[in-house]
Amino acid sequence: MKRIGIIGGGGYTAGELLRILVHHPEVEIAFVESGSQSGKAITEVHSDLVGETELTFTGSAGTALGDVDAIFLCMGHGKSRGWVEAHRPRQSQLVVDLSTDYRIDESWVYGLPEINREAITTAKRIANPGCFATAIQLALLPLAAAGLAEGEVHVNGITGSTGAGQSPSPTTHFSWRNANVSVYKPFGHQHLAEIGRSAGQVGRTATENIHFLPVRGPFARGILVTCYLDTDRSETELRQIFRDFYHGAAFTHVTDDTINLKQVVNTNKGLVQVEKHGDKVLVTSAIDNLLKGASGQAVQNMNLALGLPEDLGLRLKASMF
């Protein structure tokens, strides 16, 4: 049984981690630390866990920090690095960071199993990918690896409001978000850096020309991405490139049918569809931003790094209704 600690337990990603880990057959949750929720029952904040756990939040992990096999960092962006430097977890302890802090740090393994599975199995420091970055990379990386993404790449993605985190802001309030759509951070989204790094890792020599338009959607969770570029390859060839790239992937599946968010919400799946339109290939991908885009992928990385079956505790089911 692996003992697990969570730092920053009050937000959406920590809530999803808990939803998975309280039923994980090889995990015992040692502590859930939250400075803002200290002393409260977990279920006071994550009410979907009523009947699932009797844990309470602690204000500090204290000596328990040294008695766990893995630590998940679920704090806000920019806080993880300071926490690691202050607490210096043992090198033998697995640390999975869900923030942006280490995603382009060469001393941490980038936790996208579709390209880094072997490195993850021996890693002790894992930077979990961003949600938009995961969805975009699932659509783009097979093309990059085949040498087909050296020119301009056009990406559009729409995300649910939970992607912005639990702290309220003018663009996450229900009255603003409901029945509304808006573009934000056009061509300058923070996830472009990690996408570019991974594209280079699989063989893309171009360092620019990935044009990304992120869109806020009027729903709570899920990401749907469309990616297109010019190519002379046939649809049959392109679909085979994707099937070969994701052969053996535990959660990423290539389909010829039109995909939608309800197929992936509340699951750790990534779905990818490939079409040819004239001289352009159109790739659509879909994930749940809180699961394959965050906490589900973090558990997938934990499983790999701790020598557990990759899909353990993660066979979550979608519902079309």
TrEMBL record:
GO CC aspect terms: cytoplasm
Gene Ontology terms: biological process: L-arginine biosynthetic process
EC number(s) per entry: 1.2.1.38
Pathway membership: Amino-acid biosynthesis; L-arginine biosynthesis; N(2)-acetyl-L-ornithine from L-glutamate: step 3/4
Active-site residues, Swiss-Prot/TrEMBL: 131
GO MF terms held by the record: N-acetyl-gamma-glutamyl-phosphate reductase activity; NAD binding; NADP+ binding
Keywords assigned by UniProt, alphabetized: Amino-acid biosynthesis, Arginine biosynthesis, Cytoplasm, NADP, Oxidoreductase
Stretches of the chain forming a coiled coil according to its record: none
Compartments it resides in: Cytoplasm
Lineage of the organism: Bacteria, Pseudomonadati, Bacteroidota, Saprospiria, Saprospirales
NCBIfam families reported for this sequence: argC
Keyword Magnesium appears in the UniProt entry: no
Function: Catalyzes the NADPH-dependent reduction of N-acetyl-5-glutamyl phosphate to yield N-acetyl-L-glutamate 5-semialdehyde.
Reactions this protein catalyses: N-acetyl-L-glutamate 5-semialdehyde + phosphate + NADP(+) = N-acetyl-L-glutamyl 5-phosphate + NADPH + H(+)
Keyword flag Cytoplasm: yes
Main location: cytoplasm
First-tier enzyme category under EC: oxidoreductase
Stated family: Belongs to the NAGSA dehydrogenase family. Type 1 subfamily.
Designated name of the protein: N-acetyl-gamma-glutamyl-phosphate reductase
Domain annotation Semialdehyde dehydrogenase NAD-binding: ranges: 3-123
Pfam assignment, any one: Semialdhyde_dhC_1
Top-rank taxon: Bacteria
